[in-house]
Write a structure and sequence with these properties.
globular, six-stranded antiparallel sheet, Molybdopterin biosynthesis moea protein, domain 2, about 375 residues, Hypothetical protein af1432, 2 domains, alpha+beta
């Protein structure tokens, strides 16, 4: 147990992503808030008020990054610049709109450059994806889901040793368009996809075949893009759909994107409205490695995603509350923390380091990751 100083440990992110319903007046934005066109609506450093929070609600902003005064440390790099993320989202939206109008989707030169930009930014800093593991999106936001899957699939491919730009571009593109078949599914089914009747689920499953049929008609797209659309719900052990393919018959890109798609969807389904429980999704991928998911792919994906992302507020079994600083990739469930307070939400006068790998701490475990509601309350405690 040691006192925590800036030069002793690599700085964790001094921000917290909160669902808007838990954001309180006087919290300070840690990152700019953009609209879908990439225009800044509110700048980082803005002190939030009731009026501004109401404006964010009107703009249908689901979550924001706020400064965590408990860890007043430098900003970490983003895995994907917000402008690039928004452009990728707009590209997916363009594809959906073209198909909706019964037009064939053809990528513009600008959209080609957007895919290249996604690959370029992930390649420049593949480890930055660690800090976007706090996935937080509306469960029905197909556009945001597609961009997340593209980002994580590219990072996973890099971790597997795939470094040819052309291949990475194809993987990123296939991931962006993998859910295009959802256009053909009735909206009322999509709105309640987690509670479908058996006969409705059979209809929903057809989005994979629809995606293949739609994308194979586009001469400007590689065939792999259509194959991924059809296979992104297949599993390595043959338990997936629509054709119960096994690992040996799956397209290599599908092996990557099916695992990433499952991870991203699990993050959101576990989260509800109270923050992403990425550690539960991490554990599910780990449990399925070598059976449901290709072993090589699962290992590569998990190597880019810590069980407890840096900046996570967690409570330990001994009642202490701290922020995750780092973790050994060989012991992802035993992170190093900066202890801030206790389970009674008491804030200590001085923080200190607590490493779960150390021998004297072997009987202590992470009990839970603080949800957005409790994290917001902890951030708001006055010293």
């Amino acid at each position: 147990m040691t006192n925590c100083t800036d030069n002793q440990e690599k700085n964790p992110p001094s921000l917290q992503r909160l669902a808007l319903e838990f954001v309180r007046p006087d919290m300070v934005l840690a990152r700019d808030v953009y609209d879908e066109d990439g225009t800044i609506m509110l700048s980082a450093g803005t002190v939030l008020t009731d009026r501004l929070i109401a404006r964010l609600q009107k703009w249908e902003i689901l979550s924001v990054f706020v400064r965590n005064p408990r860890i007043d440390l430098p900003e970490v790099s983003e895995a994907l610049k917000e402008v690039t993320r928004n452009r990728a989202r707009m590209m997916v939206e363009h594809a959906f709109n073209a198909i909706r109008k019964a037009e064939q989707f053809s990528m513009s030169e600008e959209e080609q450059q957007t895919v290249h930009k996604v690959v370029e930014e992930v390649t420049q800093d593949p480890l930055a994806v660690v800090h976007m593991a706090h996935i937080n999106r509306n469960s029905r936001d197909i556009m945001a889901h597609s961009v997340n899957v593209s980002l994580l699939s590219t990072a996973t491919a890099l971790a597997m040793g795939i470094n040819k730009t052309e291949i990475l571009h194809e993987i990123a593109l296939a991931a962006l368009l993998h859910d295009i078949g959802l256009l053909m599914i009735p909206q009322d089914l999509l709105a309640r996809r987690d509670s479908l009747k058996p006969e409705e689920y059979l209809i929903y499953r057809e989005h994979t075949n629809w995606g293949f049929a739609i994308l194979q008609e586009s001469a400007s797209l590689p065939r792999s893009v259509a194959q991924v659309a059809q296979q992104h719900h297949e599993h390595a052990d043959g338990s997936g759909y629509p054709h119960q393919l096994t690992n040996s018959t799956l397209h290599p890109f599908s092996r990557i994107i099916s695992a990433v798609n499952a991870y991203e969807n699990m993050c959101v389904s576990f989260a509800g409205s109270n923050g992403c429980k990425s550690h539960l999704a991490y554990e599910s991928i780990m449990a399925g490695a070598g059976s449901r998911f290709d072993l090589h792919v699962a290992k590569a994906l998990l190597s880019r995603l810590p069980m407890y992302p840096p900046g996570s507020l967690v409570e330990l079994t001994n009642g202490l509350v701290g922020v995750v600083i780092s973790a050994d990739s060989n012991l992802p469930h035993r992170p190093k923390l900066k202890i801030l307070g206790d389970s009674a939400d008491t804030l200590f006068k001085e923080s200190y380091l607590f490493d779960l790998v150390e021998l004297e701490n072997q009987t202590v475990f992470v009990k839970e990751v603080l949800g957005d509601e409790r994290a917001a309350a902890f951030i708001s405690i006055k010293k």
